[in-house]
Write a structure and sequence with these properties.
Its main location: membrane. This is EamA family transporter RarD. Belongs to the EamA transporter family. Keywords: Cell membrane, Membrane, Transmembrane, Transmembrane helix, Transport. Helix 3 packs across helix 5 and helix 6 packs across helix 14. The chain starts with 24 loop residues before the first helix and ends with a helix. It has one domain. It is globular. It is mainly alpha-helical. The protein contains 14 helices and no strands.
Length: 323
């Protein structure tokens, strides 16, 4: 989830219902749902795409993803005449510092996720994105000193119990799931520091531009040691690798269109599509095993999420009534 507090997940938390003159609110909301389903659905299908890139390893896949995403974002910015926004962001040291940190965090997240999918751990990767909302709540307590409501505390406690059960099931700490959850949760927290001062495309452009030199260096090293596959597996493989820029940016654009039309509650509910699709793909198409203990662990995670969603809906209804 990329993108973003959720996924290859959302990158921005600036969603508000966009009431356009002459357009019914329901019509805009329906479009928002369609865009959201498109974004989270595409993020959920990423495991299939990464499997198709074999025999490329996770480092080469991520290096290409960074580089081609930067190129594709540059094309979008050129077409939309958004270079002024890039220039404004470059002049702001605080924004640049924040986005550079965000870039490192998303790099860790991408590397971990691709490694998980290509090494037969896609189920654990989906677990990471299932528990990501719980991690975000926990970060709010630890970093922002937020006070949780009783149901939020209950959800975090149930989530911790699930990690214990899954640790027993795997015979070790599910580090892939935890690294994905914490890297993406922290990424969302860092991006919140930027707020609405940069849009999604500008943000992704700067993050990938910061990482591009390292991506190029990785591709050169892989070529020198004979492990690069970009140009040695035929045109089909080349264009599959090159399309990673489009595959990264398009769901992000869909998410932006959705976020401008839906409330944060609507976006928050849709985000669970991504790990659910990933989970289904992992156990059906990829054929990863699920022991009884793992099913129990996942069931506990889903209970924690149900508690969190219930609390979110109750809080949203109270807020609406107070308006």
């Amino acid at each position: 989830m990329e993108f973003v507090t959720v996924s290859e997940p959302p990158l921005e938390n600036t969603s508000r219902t966009n009431k356009k003159p002459g357009r019914p609110v329901r019509s805009e909301a329906a479009k928002g749902v369609l865009y959201g389903v498109g974004a989270y659905g595409l993020w959920g299908l990423l495991p299939i795409y990464f499997i198709l890139l074999a025999p490329a390893n996770s480092i080469e896949i991520v290096a290409n993803r960074v580089l081609w995403s930067a190129i594709f974002c540059a094309l979008i910015i050129t077409v939309s005449r958004g270079w002024g926004k890039i220039a404004a962001a470059l002049k702001n040291k605080r924004i640049m510092g924040t986005l550079s940190v965000a870039g490192v965090l998303i790099l860790i997240n991408w590397l971990t996720y691709v490694y998980a999918v290509t090494s037969g751990s896609a189920v654990q990767a989906s677990l990471g994105y299932f528990i990501n909302p719980l991690v975000s709540v926990l970060l709010g307590v630890l970093v922002l000193k937020e006070k949780l409501r009783p149901m939020q505390w209950l959800a975090v406690g149930v989530g911790f119990a699930a990690v214990v059960v899954l640790t027993f099931s795997y015979g070790k700490l599910p580090w892939i799931a935890l690294l994905l959850a914490f890297s993406f949760g922290t990424y969302g927290f860092v991006k919140n520091r930027v707020g609405g001062r940069v849009d999604a495309v500008t943000s992704l452009s700067i993050e990938t531009a910061v990482l591009a030199p390292f991506a190029i260096a990785a591709m050169v090293i892989l070529t020198l040691v004979g492990q690069a596959t970009l140009t040695g597996m035929g045109p089909g493989h080349f264009w599959l690798m090159a399309s990673s820029g489009i595959i990264t940016a398009v769901p992000l654009l869909f998410f932006g269109a959705s976020a401008s039309r839906l409330s944060m509650t609507g976006i928050g509910l849709l985000q669970f599509m991504t790990p659910l699709v990933q989970f289904v793909i992992a156990i059906t198409i990829l054929g990863e095993p699920m022991s009884t203990e793992r099913w129990i662990g996942f069931a506990i995670v889903w209970i924690a999420l149900a508690i969190l969603i219930t609390d979110m809906l109750i809080s949203y209804r109270r807020t609406v009534r107070l308006r």
